[in-house]
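Colleagues,

For the teaching module next term, I've prepared a clean inverse folding example: a structure given as C-alpha coordinates, and then the sequence designed for it. I'd like students to try predicting residues themselves before seeing the answer, so please don't circulate the second half yet.
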Protein backbone atom coordinates (compact mmCIF):
# COMPACT_ATOMS: atom_id res chain seq x y z
CA UNK A 1 0.00 0.00 0.00
CA UNK A 2 1.53 3.26 -1.13
CA UNK A 3 1.38 6.23 1.15
CA UNK A 4 -0.15 9.33 -0.42
CA UNK A 5 2.22 12.26 -0.79
CA UNK A 6 1.16 15.80 -1.47
CA UNK A 7 1.88 17.83 -4.58
CA UNK A 8 4.49 19.93 -2.73
CA UNK A 9 6.23 16.87 -1.28
CA UNK A 10 6.38 15.27 -4.71
CA UNK A 11 7.69 18.49 -6.24
CA UNK A 12 10.46 18.82 -3.65
CA UNK A 13 11.43 15.13 -4.07
CA UNK A 14 11.65 15.61 -7.83
CA UNK A 15 13.69 18.79 -7.43
CA UNK A 16 16.23 16.80 -5.44
CA UNK A 17 16.03 13.97 -7.99
CA UNK A 18 16.80 16.39 -10.85
CA UNK A 19 19.45 18.32 -8.89
CA UNK A 20 21.44 15.13 -8.29
CA UNK A 21 22.06 14.56 -12.02
CA UNK A 22 20.59 15.56 -15.37
CA UNK A 23 17.32 13.76 -16.07
CA UNK A 24 15.13 13.35 -19.13
CA UNK A 25 11.38 13.94 -19.11
CA UNK A 26 10.74 10.18 -19.36
CA UNK A 27 12.72 9.48 -16.14
CA UNK A 28 10.91 12.25 -14.26
CA UNK A 29 7.49 11.07 -15.44
CA UNK A 30 8.35 7.51 -14.41
CA UNK A 31 9.55 8.66 -10.98
CA UNK A 32 6.31 10.60 -10.44
CA UNK A 33 4.25 7.56 -11.34
CA UNK A 34 6.33 5.48 -8.91
CA UNK A 35 5.54 8.03 -6.20
CA UNK A 36 1.81 7.64 -6.92
CA UNK A 37 1.30 10.98 -8.66
CA UNK A 38 -1.06 10.78 -11.64
CA UNK A 39 -2.99 12.92 -14.09
CA UNK A 40 -2.66 16.69 -14.30
CA UNK A 41 -0.34 16.80 -11.27
CA UNK A 42 2.35 14.99 -13.27
CA UNK A 43 2.27 17.59 -16.03
CA UNK A 44 2.09 20.44 -13.52
CA UNK A 45 5.15 19.20 -11.60
CA UNK A 46 7.10 18.67 -14.83
CA UNK A 47 6.17 22.20 -15.93
CA UNK A 48 7.34 23.57 -12.56
CA UNK A 49 10.65 21.70 -12.87
CA UNK A 50 11.21 23.09 -16.36
CA UNK A 51 10.29 26.60 -15.25
CA UNK A 52 12.67 26.41 -12.26
CA UNK A 53 15.40 25.02 -14.57
CA UNK A 54 15.68 21.69 -12.75
CA UNK A 55 14.69 19.90 -15.94
CA UNK A 56 16.16 20.82 -19.32
CA UNK A 57 16.03 18.39 -22.23
CA UNK A 58 18.86 20.00 -24.20
CA UNK A 59 21.13 20.08 -21.16
CA UNK A 60 20.34 16.40 -20.51
CA UNK A 61 21.07 15.43 -24.13
CA UNK A 62 24.41 17.27 -24.10
CA UNK A 63 25.45 15.72 -20.78
CA UNK A 64 24.38 12.25 -21.90
CA UNK A 65 26.12 12.44 -25.29
CA UNK A 66 29.31 13.87 -23.83
CA UNK A 67 29.50 11.33 -21.04
CA UNK A 68 28.81 8.29 -23.17
CA UNK A 69 31.30 9.46 -25.80
CA UNK A 70 34.14 10.39 -23.44
CA UNK A 71 33.71 7.68 -20.82
CA UNK A 72 32.17 4.69 -22.60
CA UNK A 73 33.57 5.52 -26.07
CA UNK A 74 30.18 5.16 -27.78
CA UNK A 75 29.68 6.20 -31.39
CA UNK A 76 27.03 8.52 -32.82
CA UNK A 77 24.56 5.78 -33.74
CA UNK A 78 24.50 4.29 -30.25
CA UNK A 79 24.15 7.68 -28.56
CA UNK A 80 21.34 8.71 -30.90
CA UNK A 81 19.53 5.40 -30.37
CA UNK A 82 19.72 5.69 -26.58
CA UNK A 83 18.54 9.31 -26.61
CA UNK A 84 15.58 8.34 -28.82
CA UNK A 85 14.72 5.55 -26.37
CA UNK A 86 14.61 8.25 -23.66
CA UNK A 87 12.19 10.22 -25.87
CA UNK A 88 14.52 13.18 -26.37
CA UNK A 89 13.54 15.52 -29.22
CA UNK A 90 15.35 15.40 -32.57
CA UNK A 91 16.49 19.01 -32.12
CA UNK A 92 18.15 18.26 -28.76
CA UNK A 93 19.81 15.12 -30.15
CA UNK A 94 21.20 17.04 -33.13
CA UNK A 95 22.56 19.84 -30.92
CA UNK A 96 24.11 17.37 -28.47
CA UNK A 97 25.88 15.48 -31.26
CA UNK A 98 27.17 18.72 -32.79
CA UNK A 99 28.41 20.09 -29.45
CA UNK A 100 29.89 16.99 -27.84
CA UNK A 101 31.30 14.95 -30.73
CA UNK A 102 33.67 17.16 -32.76
CA UNK A 103 35.00 15.38 -35.87
CA UNK A 104 38.68 15.35 -34.88
CA UNK A 105 37.93 13.92 -31.40
CA UNK A 106 35.49 11.44 -32.92
CA UNK A 107 38.05 10.08 -35.38
CA UNK A 108 40.74 9.96 -32.70
CA UNK A 109 38.43 8.02 -30.37
CA UNK A 110 37.51 5.64 -33.18
CA UNK A 111 41.18 4.90 -33.79
CA UNK A 112 41.79 4.36 -30.06
CA UNK A 113 38.88 1.91 -29.80
CA UNK A 114 40.09 0.00 -32.89
CA UNK A 115 43.68 -0.18 -31.64
CA UNK A 116 42.65 -1.25 -28.14
CA UNK A 117 40.43 -3.99 -29.54
CA UNK A 118 43.25 -5.13 -31.84
CA UNK A 119 45.60 -5.47 -28.85
CA UNK A 120 43.05 -7.56 -26.96
CA UNK A 121 42.28 -10.00 -29.80
CA UNK A 122 44.29 -13.19 -30.14
CA UNK A 123 43.08 -14.06 -33.67
CA UNK A 124 46.11 -14.86 -35.90
CA UNK A 125 44.20 -14.61 -39.20
CA UNK A 126 44.31 -10.92 -40.29
CA UNK A 127 41.03 -11.13 -42.24
CA UNK A 128 39.09 -12.61 -39.28
CA UNK A 129 40.83 -10.18 -36.93
CA UNK A 130 39.62 -7.19 -38.98
CA UNK A 131 36.10 -8.65 -39.06
CA UNK A 132 36.02 -9.04 -35.28
CA UNK A 133 37.37 -5.53 -34.72
CA UNK A 134 34.83 -4.04 -37.12
CA UNK A 135 31.90 -5.89 -35.56
CA UNK A 136 32.88 -4.74 -32.07
CA UNK A 137 33.38 -1.10 -33.06
CA UNK A 138 30.18 -0.96 -35.13
CA UNK A 139 28.29 -2.43 -32.15
CA UNK A 140 29.63 0.49 -30.07
CA UNK A 141 27.75 2.79 -32.46
CA UNK A 142 30.38 3.95 -34.92
CA UNK A 143 29.40 4.25 -38.59
CA UNK A 144 30.28 1.18 -40.69
CA UNK A 145 31.94 2.97 -43.66
CA UNK A 146 34.05 5.08 -41.29
CA UNK A 147 35.06 1.99 -39.29
CA UNK A 148 36.15 0.06 -42.38
CA UNK A 149 37.99 3.04 -43.81
CA UNK A 150 39.92 3.45 -40.54
CA UNK A 151 40.68 -0.27 -40.22
CA UNK A 152 42.03 -0.40 -43.79
CA UNK A 153 44.12 2.70 -43.16
CA UNK A 154 45.59 1.30 -39.94
CA UNK A 155 46.11 -2.36 -40.92
CA UNK A 156 46.93 -2.49 -44.63
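(Answer key — instructors only)
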Amino acid sequence: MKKYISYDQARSKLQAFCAYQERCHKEVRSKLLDLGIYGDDVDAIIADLIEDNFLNELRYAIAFAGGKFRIKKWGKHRIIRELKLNQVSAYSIKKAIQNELPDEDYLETLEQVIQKRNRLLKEPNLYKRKQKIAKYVIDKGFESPLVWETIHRLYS
